[in-house]
Design a protein that fits this description.
Structural class: mainly alpha
Largest sheet: none
Number of helices: 6
CATH class of the largest domain: Mainly Alpha
Number of strands: 0
Distance between the termini: 27 Å
Order of helices and strands: HHHHHH
Shape: globular
Strand content: under 5%
Oligomer: single chain
CATH architecture of the largest domain: Orthogonal Bundle
CATH topology of the largest domain: 434 Repressor (Amino-terminal Domain)
Radius of gyration: 15 Å
């Protein structure tokens, strides 16, 4: 089972954000973010939507329903999306060789 708090902490750190920075984006306090990461509180549906927008991920991924991340390509051109797909395939091949 995926730990919501660990997933949130990982996403936040990968984005280079502090708890305070994430709290500001969510319009909550730093301690609330800490509670989420420690799994002492669960975010409201409104905060959950904000989290998906901040990290450009699905709620399913954040909640551990799906293990695969999806990428938000909104705002990208078709050429941009093709380039992203090429990069992903190149990285997959590189990792398969290991």
């Amino acid at each position: 089972m995926v730990n919501f708090g660990e997933t949130l902490r990982t996403l936040r750190k990968e984005a280079g954000m502090t708890q305070t920075e994430l709290a500001n984006r969510l319009n909550v306090t730093k301690s609330v973010v800490s509670y989420y990461e420690l799994q002492e509180r669960t975010p409201s549906p409104e905060v959950l939507v904000k989290l998906t927008n901040v990290f450009h991920i699905s709620a399913d991924y954040l909640l551990g329903i799906r293990q695969d991340q999806s990428l938000d390509c909104s705002g990208l051109t078709e050429d941009d999306i093709r380039l992203v797909r090429m990069i992903i395939e190149t990285l997959r091949k590189k990792n398969e060789e290991k």
